[in-house]
Amino acid sequence: MALQIPCHAQHILNQSFKLQQADSLIEAGHHRRAYIILNKVQKRPQAETRLLQALVLSARILNENGDRVRAIEQLKSILVLPVLNIPQNIGIRTDAYLILAECYFGISKIEDFKSISDSVLQLAIHNHLQTYYRARAYTNLARYYAYAIVPNTGKPFLDSALSLYNNAPEKEKKYYNPVSIYTAIIDLNRDLDRCKLDPAINTVVKLVNGNYGRERYNQILLWQTIGGVFLDSINDNNGQNKEIIKRQHYKALFAYQRAKVILRTHYPSNHIGLVSVNNLCGLLNYNCGLFRSAENYFRLSKAILAEQKYPIDKYTLTYSKTYLWESAVKDSVYTGKVLLQKRKEELSEWIHLAPYWQSWMQINQNKSLHYFRDNYAKSPFDNIVRLCYQLYQTEKDPKYIDLAFKAQENGKNYFLNYEYKKRYHITQPVLPDIQNIQHQLSPKQAIISFSDLGSYYKSLYAIVITADTVSIKKIDFGRLHTPAGLPASDICENLTKFKGYSNAAYQVIFKPLKGLLNNRINALLVFPSTLSSYFKFDMMVSDTLGINSFSGLPYLNNNYQIRYDFSYQFQCLRGQLAKQKKDASTNIQAYIPDYTNTRFYSLPFFTNLGNSLKTAFDFNVFDHSSSNIANYKANAGKARIIQFAGHSSVNQFAAEDLKIAMDSTRKGDSRFLTMDDIINTKLQADLTVLSLCETGEGDTRVQDSYLNMAYWFTYAGSKSCLFSYWKLDDRSTSFILEKFYHYLALGMRKSDALRKAQQDYLLQAKSEEEKNPVYWAGLTLIGDDSPIKLEEDNHRQYWYFAVLLFTPLLILTRKRRKQHPVNYQRLGSDNK
User: Fold this and answer.
1) What is the pLDDT of residues 366-402, one digit of tens each?
2) In a domain, 472, yes or no
3) Within a 13 Å sphere around the CA of 48, how many CA atoms are in the beta-carbon half?
4) Domain match, 557 and 659 both
């Protein structure tokens, strides 16, 4: 018996050596040999931990060969085992997490990738694991923020990973995955600091061209990223220097071919990886005008998918990161009838793919988040619109406009429609038919529905529907050389700047559509896309010559009543919801925090607004300590009108960072009403008023959607929202909101009430400065426009209106007294 113990120990040592050998083989890309070793260990494991290690490594082989679904299932089944919580097995648990993170990254479940990487970092820190585990976690987090195009947030993580790598002993550096670190450096600096790209590329290329025998699979992503750097350079050059394009094309193609060689040599069963590289080569050649070569690469991808009998949703995954060659703005491969036939074939293909695209979106949603975001997603619906436009120009068949409108409707706010149906148990309305819509329009109304054509071409497609006509128009958004965005305070800082911006937006975006509207039309309903969401149509000006005042500018708002909604389909969904609701609640609420003694500056006019709303309209006002998150969650679901007045915080790169500074009695993040709080509080409000700064800002990276605060309150159930595109002035906004509620009480529609309140403000404005749009044009209505039943106590309102007007005088008087204190002794006062 004494002789059996060392013999058993020897077997364990042998298996431990075999697992290390398998790990090295996997690193070098020799999967077949590694698999044989792992199979032997799994058949006769000498210890449970050896079996777990073998299963983790075999999951890695599955992932690197493209079978990520099986890899994820295997890793999840391992990670639930209690044995992995034992301290001596934490290393195995961490290895399993790292491979699981790579699986999620490979299928673009990027939020899951971040979540697992966070877990790895916590495990490594709390259990004092080898520092290379922390380095890998930091690298993954840097990769996440590079993917999310937030390089400044990712840089500290990357710096930490690089510092740990540089300080590691030379013989241990290989365990820090330097190829991944340098790939993350290159990826981050594509958007952060391009001067650092060449040194990083040279360093890592020198490493992989030497005797470095590890990270074979990571080298595929490295070469794809390097190719992307040169592709960026080609796109930035915009065809101006053909010699530079030729050089950059050669470098990018060389990088992609290196990735392709690694795949074919070491990972021949990773068909999706090969398809992805083929698509990148196709996109590269397409952008360089080599359309025939681009077409051949895309055909190779489609042939691989067909040969391997991949389901149709894999095709949409393939096309999500590229374009078919036919999406060229100018086609130099086919002409005439052949080109016409090619476009029809492509249109048929995209229509066939479209339903599976929606399934792909659902499958890839992270269950812990309430929205879907993929930076590189390319919807088939935009391609359908583009092809319908091209075919309509040739054949003038109105069926193409109808197809294009249906594609726009399917593409717009898919997530909002889907979740609204699920949350409120309402049925999906039939896709709108243009003829039926025309029957519902009066001769004075028109609908303008926009869709985008991706970031490469910066084009908008607008469908204009009136009672008599329907048209489709292409708008070259790239011609707008003024700053892309809304007339925020910096653009409104002087008349010259504002005139230039607003007229340029009019010339590029609205003027091409004006010829499609007859003189009777005075009401426009706009369904914006992501790009067109940046622009406030009512503030566009049609002329600037000889006009030297803000009030004299010919705003579109003077000639048209302009309102916005998410889509026509969503209007129908909201109509179904309205039929389900019982009698409207009489409860109306205002949340107006007191920011005294906080880092936020005080808003005295909003405080006065709360008093006025309470007195004149019987608002239930939550102020001071009562304006808090708990009261919102408990009461907001009962309200018919919800008014916010105060401060908010937004992040255009992360929709989940939208929040309202709500509770002045708390500190830190606990004082904020977050996006999760908003969407998890079910509302029945007819109107939500967000008199908060920049609530129109939001995440633009969802297909044809714009995830601002109005979007999330609509998701929660509000039929309409007033929101702002820039920082609001509390004095002028308070005046406009009082007038707005006054006109609502008179029975006006919401858009008419807002427009009339803004006109009243301009009539009372005394100076040219007060007529600047930054003071009166910030609020925008989106959603239902029907009147709201509201009662006003006129007698009390007059008193508070007087207080509102005299408050500035009192504040000015106090300031003067502080600047020129009274000498009481000289006046003979007894005060000392």
Assistant:
1) 333 333 333 334 567 877 888 899 899 999 999 999 9
2) yes
3) 8
4) no
